[in-house]
Design brief:
The complex is a heterodimer of chains A (about 190) and B (about 725). Chain A contains eleven helices and no strands. With about 190 residues, chain A is mainly α. A five-stranded parallel beta sheet of chain B has the order 8-5-4-16-27, with helices on one face. In chain B, helix 7 packs parallel to helix 8, helix 15 packs across helix 18 and helix 16 packs across helix 17. Classes of the chains: A mainly alpha (about 190), B alpha/beta (about 725).
Chain lengths: ~190, ~725
């Protein structure tokens, strides 16, 4: 919950947004949500976000499109699927979060300075460039100097045990992956699959 | 003027009005025909031109049929004034007493060894906090002692036949092994019985012997042997000073004749172990609310160590409002039951913490909101949020995790007793009974009332009335209201002493009958007998379904008000008159399927005007010749729609449709032009899509080839 409360007026509501999300994967059964809270009660990461999954659905139902897409909460889902298993109305919340991420990237409505988002961006950048995950570069992109300094002892331990690889070799033809990774950016396909 | 055709709303609305009007003017009411231009035409489309063509066809069909209408007179039959009440819970008991006090003889059939039902298991009742058994047991005793009530416990309905005014039921009584009249209820037998099992009345919170009294106030107040667990050591025989135990007791059959039946079969609970996140069965301190009711009655303790609980959580909506693993509906009584239990327990246990986790708290009812307010005053804590999971953390304690949706934060709290409130389901076996009685079942699994608002305790079968939780989840007060309504409806049927019997019955044309007996085999109500003169239809048991007609090779059997000539004339009128492309005839079974077709219009659902509906008593009344007549007169496709749970059972429906399809396709017509389906009334919405899809199919196939049409024309004329 944000400290400062805002007053939501109808001018902030986009009546087409709800319909748009309903057409996305995970959005099919959105209208049947009864706001029971079993998803957010079950959520393993909702403490970390601004809104919990139930509140994200409420934002969508109210048509608060910009608010929904710019919230950091849609980037905290780790796809454990506990909520999807328990939802009494069969709403696939992780799939919904994935769809919201795609919509957010398309509209450029990304939250600023969000660690989770940065992680996703660094992750996909590494994947696109290399064809496989380069953990050291991922870490160095995300962590600040102070954090790197703080984790130096752990790094040395890992290095001694041969668990730290400074450079992961790229796969033979990383460009073959590009077709998969382009889809969310093209804005043509609704599905990330 | 000899005959009247009215182009208007559905005959379901005002056929009686117009029949009465004509009757008062001296025209036989069966000479009135209605063309359904509203529900099945104007309300189903916005396309005026094609709707006009469709209306012309519908009127042409009605006029065609009207020419062959015959004057008919309903007969009156004396009714049997006995009543069978199936189910001995509070609903069945109140209905029986109400009728018996009016002078009707009542047979009450209860599956359990005692009457009382679920109400006997409850501690107190909301919102008045009356002790449940204190108000119920006088009723139990009155039922037992009433000279006009014959009580049959440990018994079930085996078969049931007949119609309003004349039912015959055969009942199977399971052996009790204890003579009800000799047993004094002293309990010496149970003392010596070596077998101990979980007590079902106590919901497993206590144990009982294999010979047992269901509960102290049981009616009849006689012991019973639990057949499944008895080891037949017969120590009880020696212990019984009254010689009440009969080891040779056997199942017995009893036949009864009644004029009406009341179905009050009650409910059972959803199995909460299906929702694994609530851990039912994995920890002793997770119980159902029915188990809690029993715990309240014989001392509140947490089952793990039998100590007094300090902190109790109620988990609402376990399987209710859950279209994935449970039931989509709200079970209605759980909110108030949980509030009541919390209030009661706070009185019984000092310093007890009581938390109710709810989805939406539903306290709609006289005095219910006030009771909820009182609970809050008393200090019961309410959390709006469906419980996510219940996790054992020690031998006694459980962690309950849920979101407080009003705050948007996750709550984690330890409790030493977690009470699950499972959904209310229709009692097992009620669907079986429904099938045998010709009752309809709604999409929720409960019995379906004749009219949701105006005939709430009537079934689709004129002499069968419904009451209590067999219709849907409800509390004691509402069950009693329905019991009294059902009793009143029963009395108004039986009180006149006579029932009107429809003249729409099958009849045999004697000179054509060769006594082959095919009709006897197919009749679902065994209404046809083979006499030396040929087949004869018994008037009362015949339900007018017409299943006997297509099986008669000689056309020797016909049906009043749906005669061969009437049906053929209607088909001819509907199919011939306007030159509509991709014309489709839909034969709809009169009760459910035709009603469902009306409901499509009532809901203003659109479907192509290509489809014209013709009402038939049952799809089983149709012969391939009717479809051929439709095709030859101009139809390009035929749909047959039968209701669910009609006399035409699934197997016969399929074989009948296959038979028709075989004949039709052998005439050169593509098999795809014939489609058959079943529907219940509540599923009416699917009919609009059936009509849509089938029309698209026929449009793709194009019109029936001219040469095929003229060839079948020659065949049908010949």
């Amino acid at each position: 919950m944000s400290g400062q409360k805002e007053i939501v007026g109808t001018e902030m509501m986009d009546p087409t947004f709800f319909e748009e999300v309903k057409k996305m994967p995970g959005g099919e059964k959105l209208a049947s949500c009864i706001q029971c809270g079993i998803c957010s009660g079950s959520c393993t990461t909702s403490f970390a976000g601004e809104f919990n999954p139930r509140q994200v659905i409420e934002l969508i139902q109210l048509g608060l499109g910009n608010r929904t897409l710019s919230t950091t909460s849609i980037w905290t889902c780790v796809f454990c699927r506990t909520c999807a298993v328990r939802c009494p109305q069969g709403i696939d919340v992780p799939e919904l979060m994935s769809s919201l991420r795609i919509m957010a990237v398309r509209r450029g409505a990304l939250p600023r300075d969000d660690r989770n988002l940065k992680f996703h961006q660094a992750f996909s950048k590494s994947l696109v460039a290399n064809g496989r995950l380069d953990t050291f570069r991922l870490y160095s992109r995300l962590a600040g100097m102070r954090e790197i300094a703080r984790s130096l002892p752990l790094g040395l331990t890992l290095l001694r045990k041969g668990k730290l690889v400074f450079r992961t070799p790229a796969m033979a033809h990383p460009e073959q992956l590009s077709r998969l990774t382009e889809i969310p950016r093209s804005g043509e396909e609704a599905s990330s699959k | 003027m000899e005959r009247v055709v009215i182009g208007s709303c559905s005959p379901r609305m005002h056929l009686k009005t117009f029949r009465d009007l004509c009757s008062s003017e001296g025209i036989n009411p069966y000479l009135v025909e209605m063309a359904n231009l509203r529900e099945q035409c104007s309300w189903t489309t916005l396309d005026k031109d094609s709707a006009t063509d469709k209306a012309i066809d519908i009127v042409a069909g009605a006029v065609g049929r009207a020419a062959y209408l015959e004057p008919l007179t309903p007969t009156e039959m004396k009714v049997n004034s006995n009543v069978a009440v199936i189910g001995g819970g509070v609903s069945g008991i109140c209905a029986s007493l109400e009728l018996a006090n009016q002078g009707y003889k009542v047979f009450m059939v209860e599956r359990q060894p005692s009457i009382g039902g679920h109400m006997a298991q409850l501690s107190k009742t909301y919102p008045t906090l009356d002790c449940s058994l204190c108000i119920l047991s006088p009723k139990l005793a009155e039922t037992k002692g009433h000279p006009l009530i014959e009580l049959m416990t440990n018994a079930e309905v085996a078969t049931i036949n007949g119609s309003a005014g004349a039912y015959s039921l055969s009942l199977t009584r399971r052996p009790r092994y204890v003579n009800e009249n000799k047993c004094t209820g002293c309990g010496e037998c149970a003392k010596v019985c070596p077998v101990e099992v979980a007590d079902d009345f106590e919901e497993g919170t206590a144990r009982r012997k294999a010979i047992y009294l269901p509960f102290p106030q049981a009616v009849p107040n006689a012991y019973v042997i639990d057949e499944n667990n008895c080891t037949k050591c017969w120590l009880c025989i020696k212990a019984c000073k009254h010689g009440a135990i009969n080891p040779r007791d056997q199942a017995s059959q009893k036949k009864i004749e009644t004029g009406a039946v009341i179905v009050a079969t009650g409910f059972r609970l959803f199995d909460p172990s299906v929702l694994t996140q609530y851990g039912f069965g994995t920890h002793p301190n997770i119980v159902t609310n029915l188990q809690l009711e029993r715990l309240i009655e014989h001392g509140v303790y947490r089952p793990s160590d039998r100590k007094t609980p300090r902190k109790i959580a109620w988990v609402l909506c376990v399987g209710s409002r859950d279209s994935q693993s449970g039931q989509p509906y709200c079970s209605k009584i759980c909110c108030m039951a949980a509030v009541k239990e919390a209030v009661l327990l706070r009185e019984l246990v000092p310093n007890l913490e009581t938390w109710i986790f709810y989805t939406d708290l539903r306290a709609a009812g006289k005095g219910y909101e006030e009771f909820y307010a009182r609970a809050k005053e008393d200090g019961v804590k309410f959390v709006r949020g469906r419980v996510a999971e219940v996790v054992p953390i020690s031998g006694n304690e459980l962690l309950v995790r849920a979101e407080d949706t009003l705050l948007g934060v996750q709550l984690e709290n330890a409790f030493d007793l977690v009470v699950l409130c499972p959904a209310i389901l229709p009692e097992a076996g009620s669907s079986d009974l429904a099938e045998r009685l010709g009752l309809h079942i709604g999409s929720d699994g409960f019995l379906l009332e004749r009219h949701y608002k105006l005939r709430p305790v009537d079934s689709q079968n004129d002499g069968v009335f419904l009451s209590g939780c067999s219709l849907g989840p409800k509390d004691v007060r509402e069950s009693v209201v329905e019991a009294l309504s059902a009793a009143s409806r029963t009395a108004s049927l039986l009180g006149k002493g006579l029932v009107t019997v429809s003249p729409e019955k099958a009849y045999v044309i004697e000179e054509k009958c060769d006594s082959c007996g095919e009709c006897v085999k197919v009749c679902p109500t065994r209404a046809i007998e083979l006499l030396s003169s040929g087949a004869t239809v018994k008037f009362i048991p015949c339900v007018g379904c017409g299943l006997c007609i297509p099986v008669c090779a000689r056309g020797a059997i016909d049906l009043k008000n749906s005669t061969e000539s009437q049906l053929m004339a209607e088909i001819e009128g509907v199919a011939r008159v306007t030159p509509t492309k991709a014309k489709i005839i839909a034969f709809a079974e009169a009760t459910s399927a035709y009603t469902a077709c009306d409901l499509v219009g009532l809901a203003r659902q659109q479907y192509p005007t290509n489809v014209r509906v013709i009402k038939v008593p049952s799809v089983g009344r149709l012969h391939a010749r009717h479809l051929l007549a439709a095709f030859s007169a101009g139809a390009d496709g035929v749909v047959m729609i039968e209701g669910e749970g009609t006399v035409l059972d699934e197997e016969r429906f399929r074989s009948h449709v296959n038979e028709i399809r075989k004949t039709v396709t052998s005439g050169g017509i593509e098999s795809l032009r014939v489609f058959a389906t079943r529907t219940t009334i509540p599923q009416y919405a699917k009919l609009a899509s059936v009509f849509q899809t089938f029309t698209e199919r026929i449009q793709k196939l194009g019109p029936l080839r001219m040469d095929v049409r003229s060839r079948i024309k020659q065949v049908t004329v010949a």
